[in-house]
Amino acid sequence: MPGERLLRFLDGRSRLHEDLLIGLRTPVVPMLRTVLELPFRPRTGPPPPTAPEESTP
After folding, report:
1. How far apart are CA 33 and CA 38, in angstroms?
2. What pLDDT is attached to residue 57?
3. pLDDT tens for residues 7-55?
4. Distance CA 26, CA 21 (A)
């Protein structure tokens, strides 16, 4: 099943032929656009930590 194949790929448990099948179905133009835009996008840090909520008795 394609869904199981994708999950194995994301888990790093897929085989080479499965990786190639996924790569053949990957939208290349949007990925290339992202690669080209990435260096020019502003970087943001992680969000500030939030204080734990106080419980009232």
Report:
1. 9
2. 61
3. 998 999 999 999 998 888 889 899 899 889 988 888 888 878 887 776 6
4. 9
List the structure tokens of 43. Answer: 């970087």
Q: Are 48 and 32 in contact (CB under 8 A)?
A: no
Distance CA 38, CA 27 (A): 17
Which DSSP string do the residues of 1-57 spell out, in sequence order? -HHHHHHHHHHT---HHHHHHHHHTS-HHHHHHHHHHGGGSPP--PPPPPPPPPPP-
